């Protein structure tokens, strides 16, 4: 399989086709490869750049979408969107681990599922898109793979996932983690079951017609169960 075909599925998920495939390969190359093969190529410099690109995209989005929100609230929303946990979640959603270039030892140690490696690679890809194309292209990729997160966090009505995330942060807990438990039904009318877990708290499941709606229902149910929300807050 040619390199171009190898990464075609990832480029489709990103909504961006690279002119310089070497940039994409570098973005996917973990530092363990450099250490094991004595090579200088890895994604650390691209990660540095991509972190800044992501920050500017999100800051611009929040500034435009929330003209009446004060700086402190903007900062909380910003941090929730650009933190490592969110970047890792995005990486999992686009199945990024499958494309990572790791040393054999890192791969054997579960590197394709490690959240820090996934988060760093997501940022590196954004840096690579910026260099390969321009800022507008990087912005389009962020909007494509962050998806509804950007809209949910700017809506005037607080959605359950955002509310749960803010509550977890207020309790100094790690961000909630979502797992797809099952998918049943025909393609035109699927039913998803998702589970949300927060450290130290019993997990909660929710059901919906999409992955996202199932996650929202799981978050809502957990908030109600823990007494953070009353039923009247149901979206």
Features:
235 residues, mainly alpha, Ribonuclease iii, N-terminal Endonuclease Domain, Chain A, Double Stranded RNA Binding Domain, three-stranded antiparallel sheet, 13 helices, 3 strands, 10% strand, globular
Kindly describe this structure.
With 235 residues, this protein is mainly alpha-helical. It has two domains: 150 residues, Orthogonal Bundle (Ribonuclease iii, N-terminal Endonuclease Domain, Chain A), CATH 1.10.1520.10; 74 residues, 2-Layer Sandwich (Double Stranded RNA Binding Domain), CATH 3.30.160.20. It is 58% helix and 10% strand. The protein has 13 helices and three strands; from the N terminus they run ααααααααααααβββα. The protein has a three-stranded antiparallel beta sheet with strand order 1-2-3. A hairpin with a 6-residue loop joins strand 1 and strand 2.
CATH class of the largest domain: Mainly Alpha
In terms of DSSP E residues, the strand content is 5-15%
Low-confidence stretches are: none
Helix content: 55-70%
Radius of gyration: 19 Å
């Amino acid at each position: 399989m040619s390199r171009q075909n190898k990464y075609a599925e990832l480029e489709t998920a990103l909504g961006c086709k690279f002119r310089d495939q070497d940039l994409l390969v570098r973005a996917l190359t973990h530092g363990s490869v450099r250490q094991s093969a004595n090579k200088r190529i890895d994604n650390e410099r691209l990660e540095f750049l991509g972190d800044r690109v992501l920050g500017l995209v999100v800051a611009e989005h929040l500034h435009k979408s929330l003209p009446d929100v004060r700086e402190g609230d903007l900062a909380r929303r910003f941090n929730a969107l650009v933190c490592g946990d969110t970047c890792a979640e995005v990486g999992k959603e686009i199945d990024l681990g499958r494309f990572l270039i790791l040393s054999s030892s890192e791969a054997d140690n579960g590197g394709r599922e490690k959240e820090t490696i996934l988060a760093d690679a997501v940022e590196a890809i954004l840096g690579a898109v910026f260099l390969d194309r321009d800022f507008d292209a990087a912005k389009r990729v962020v909007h494509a793979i962050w998806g509804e997160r950007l809209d949910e966090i700017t809506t005037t009505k607080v959605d359950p996932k955002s509310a749960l995330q803010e509550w977890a942060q207020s309790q100094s807990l790690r961000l909630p983690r979502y797992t797809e438990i099952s998918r049943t039904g025909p393609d035109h009318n699927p039913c998803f079951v998702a589970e949300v877990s927060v450290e130290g708290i019993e997990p909660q499941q929710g059901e919906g017609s999409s992955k996202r709606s199932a996650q929202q229902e799981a978050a809502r149910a957990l908030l109600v169960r823990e007494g953070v929300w009353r039923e009247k807050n149901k979206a």
